[in-house]
Amino acid sequence: MIVGNKKISNYNIIEFCSITIIWIAIYSIPYFQNRTIGIIVWESVFEDWIKITAFLLIFLFNTYFFVPKILFVKRYFQYFGIILVVSFSIICSLIWIQTKFTSRNPVEMPPMEIGPGLPPMELGSTMPLPKGYRPNQKSIQTSVNKIFFDYLIIAFLVLGAGTTQKTIIRWINEENRRKDIEKEQLKTELALLRHQINPHFLMNTLNNIHALMDIDVEKAKESVIRLSTLMRYLLYDSSQGKTSITKELQFIESYIDLMRLRYSEKVRIDFQIPENIPEVLIPSLLFVSFIENAFKHGVSYRKQSFVQFKMDVQNDKINCTIRNSKHPNNTIEKTKYSGIGMENVRRSLELLYKKDYTLIIKDEENEYEINLTIPLYENQMHSH
After folding, report:
1. pTM
2. CATH code, domain carrying 359
3. Which of 2, 54, 142, 358 lies at a CB distance of 3.0 to 4.6 Å from 94, suitable for a disulfide?
4. Which domain range does residue 18 map to?
């Protein structure tokens, strides 16, 4: 998926830039710490830079090799073993380099009295070694051990920071991949639903025209022309999955006019829509199954029947009401409103709007009513 790869690439760039900025800031600290008025102690700066470089190596090895190549493939014991060996090796090398570096310079001395009335020297101050001076080996070993454990703690903090960062980036990338997959699945499922609706709608309409041929040939011809108009909408305007409310209502009106040609005057058909229709997109063929079922189950040739379609736009929402009469011979089960189209519409509403829609069905003795409320604006629809 190209979109997902672009997102991952962007996150990798952001990760690289943030790491670079952070480590540049860390490298700048010794420069500001080891300068006085007009004087920069470059020896101390370089010594600190050597330390930082050692921990940077630990960070880079861990973040860009050990974590993605070993930890993320669940080779946990190997990961912990390798980071310990690498960390110990780099720290020991750092201490060895520091020992060689400081041996060529004045040696750090512990606090000591240098004369009557003079304050003791501070830890870290330097002075030339007296002739014949031999440092206490036990003190040196204690100092080395202390430095080693201090460095080890810093190494673990660096390792933890790198592992945490890489884990977060990986989680973000995985979330983006999952969302992209869900979007693709949603598109595929909605396309399948629409392909199921179209043959279902066409089958019902052809049955209507077939029945009309025995009653009025001229009306049947007119019905074929109207059907071609409807099929053009199905093939082209609704192929993108979304359409304007105006086009959807024109399609419904054409369908209702087609139904008027078939049924007698005993069937009262009302079509009410607002004068000012907002130009926003809605899912195509959203109301067709409701209308189909209203005519299928609400019309009787022998008794007075009615079908009503009404749409209102209020408070940034679209409210659509479809009412139809009920008759004993064609009444369906009260607990289930049957039909392939209806089930597809229910599924489409769940996929497109999740919990942002309201579908209320009233099944009374002589009347059936469906009330659907959806968000008005396109950005409120979970379209992908």
Report:
1. 0.50
2. 3.30.565.10
3. 54
4. 2-110+123-179
